[in-house]
Amino acid sequence: MSVPRTIVVGGGLAGLSAAHTLLEHGKNVLLLDKMPSLGGNSVKASSGINGAGTAPQQALDIQDSVEVFFADTAASAGPDLARPALITALTANSAGAIAWLAGTFGVDLSVVSRLGGHTAARTHRDPGGAPGWTITSALMKRLTADTARAEIVKSARVVRLLEDAGSVVGVEYEAGGALVEARGTVVLATGGYAADFRPGGLLAQHRPELLPLSTTNGEHATGDGARLATALARPAGLCDLDQVQVHPTGFVDPARPDAKTKFLAAEALRGAGALLLDAHGARFVDEVGRRDVVTAAMQAAAGPVRLVLGTAAAEEVRSHCGFYASKGLMKRYADAAAFAADTGIPLESIRATFASYSSYASGAEMDPFARATFRNASYTAEEPLHVAIITPVVHYTMGGLAVDAHARVLTADSATPIPGLFAAGEVIGGVHGRNRLAGSSLLEAVVFGRLAGEGAAKA
Ligand SMILES: Cc1cc2nc3c(=O)[nH]c(=O)nc-3n(C[C@H](O)[C@H](O)[C@H](O)COP(=O)(O)OP(=O)(O)OC[C@H]3O[C@@H](n4cnc5c(N)ncnc54)[C@H](O)[C@@H]3O)c2cc1C
């Protein structure tokens, strides 16, 4: 008897995590992706993946717990939109997710940093500083090698879910100009809608004021999963579609300042101690505060806003800086005088900002923006500086398909599971409420990908 095949739609980290979990449970997999290569936005992730109570944290003597991670996530989600069952699934499975990536795929996630909104250092990355690529490519490599049990079809856009008596029983996809049907339980892992700028698209419907902004997302992020599952005879529910994360730090490329897709200045830069300065050379916010808070402060500040790294901070994220400089997104100045001369910011303002920042960092004075942690805090006017112009960009969509804590897609009318349909990753909604914490999306992809894989294997 042939082994039943489960269909995974989307080859980013969520889809790959689901696919590997299905293989672990003895199932065969058909993975479809509409793009010519796998990886989605997952390969772009640059800050890392969260976990509480992990082996790398223990090795670094970092105190953390699932309870504290839960509390941070719930606070960020907001009292009205925090969903305890989903947050519990995310946080309680986080250490297991890191252990799975390290143990099964040999991914080195030994560097741990504390990013905005987190009470503890819990965002894990590889020493090379490209966690999205390192993690996702390890999963892709292994799946691609398993030709006996995993079939991967690229440039295959799923256009319809097949139904039978209220259950999802397969998909219809377009490939090479033909429509093809495939039968099996379905895991949707199609990512979010942060690049859905189309007239009538999800951003236009739910956050039209964001349409003029650029995005950090690849062109695939057009909300396909939401459209597929809401087209069912008994449609799937959606939640929080108006909750769209604008990231404060998209790079403005001096060669293409109006480009619709922008590189992200990784959260890790601010985690390493980067300052944000306005057009007058003054700070205006706690740089490691939550993304929504930092974005609002930037929009109120005198622009252009610049991200500035001193020598110690730049050293901590050396590979990031080298990459951004190679793309023409970041400039290195020999000292503050050179920075001032190039930008027109008065040198005295920069000196004053550095001096007051040192005083806040040493505890001699209170930071007026209530910054509490100061990493690599020494800034002098004499040291080399790495500088980039930044702007807020559409980055992540918190809203999506309504699911339960087992990654089962729920109906819109009765919030009951739709037989045969699971979802994981950015396509799902509700895990992060109003605001996703940095590092929690790769985690969502792995945790809910694993849950979806498990559920689909048993379905
Ligand atoms: C620049 C950048 C940096 C980031 N950094 C971090 C970070 O450091 N930490 C963190 O936690 N998060 C980060 N994020 C967010 C995170 O990367 C994503 O939210 C996450 O990777 C989403 O994973 P996914 O598998 O759900 O979707 P994706 O990785 O986007 O994959 C979705 C896949 O589905 C395919 N697809 C879509 N529609 C169809 C269809 N109809 N048929 C077939 N295939 C389809 C797409 O082609 C794509 O390959 C970052 C995002 C960006 C853009």
Tell me the distance between the termini: 18 Å
Largest sheet: 6 strands, mixed
> How many domains comprise the coordinates?
2
Indicate the structural class: alpha+beta
Low-confidence runs (pLDDT<50, min 5 residues)? none
Bound molecules: flavin-adenine dinucleotide
**What is the count of helical runs?**
15
- Gross geometry: elongated
CATH level-1 class of the largest domain: Alpha Beta
**Major sheet: arrangement of strands:** 6-2-1-10-19-18
Classified in CATH, the superfamily of the largest domain is FAD/NAD(P)-binding domain
Using the CA coordinates, give the radius of gyration: 22 Å
Tell me the CATH topology of the largest domain. FAD/NAD(P)-binding domain
Keywords, please?
459 residues; alpha+beta; FAD/NAD(P)-binding domain; Flavocytochrome C3, Chain A, domain 1; 6-stranded mixed sheet; 5-stranded antiparallel sheet; 19 strands
What features would you describe in this structure?
The protein is an alpha+beta fold and 459 residues long. It folds into 2 domains: 5-192 and 398-458, FAD/NAD(P)-binding domain (3-Layer(bba) Sandwich); 248-393, Flavocytochrome C3, Chain A, domain 1, CATH 3.90.700.10. 33% of the residues lie in helices and 21% in strands. It contains 15 helices and 19 strands. It has helices spanning 13-24, 55-59, 66-77, 84-92, 94-105, 131-145, 202-206, 224-230, 267-271, 291-300, 311-316, 318-326, 336-343, 347-362, 440-458; strands spanning 5-9, 28-32, 49-50, 111-113, 123-125, 150-153, 156-164, 167-175, 178-183, 186-188, 238-239, 244-251, 275-277, 305-309, 331-333, 385-397, 400-401, 408-410, 417-423. The chain has a 6-stranded mixed β-sheet, with helices on one face. Strands 12, 13, 14, 15 and 16 form a 5-stranded antiparallel β-sheet that branches. It has a 3-stranded antiparallel β-sheet with strand order 3-5-4. Strand 1, helix 1 and strand 2 form a beta-alpha-beta unit. The chain is elongated, with a radius of gyration of 22 Å. The mean pLDDT is 96. Bound molecules: flavin-adenine dinucleotide. The site of flavin-adenine dinucleotide (FAD) has 41 residues, from helix 1, strand 7 and helix 15.
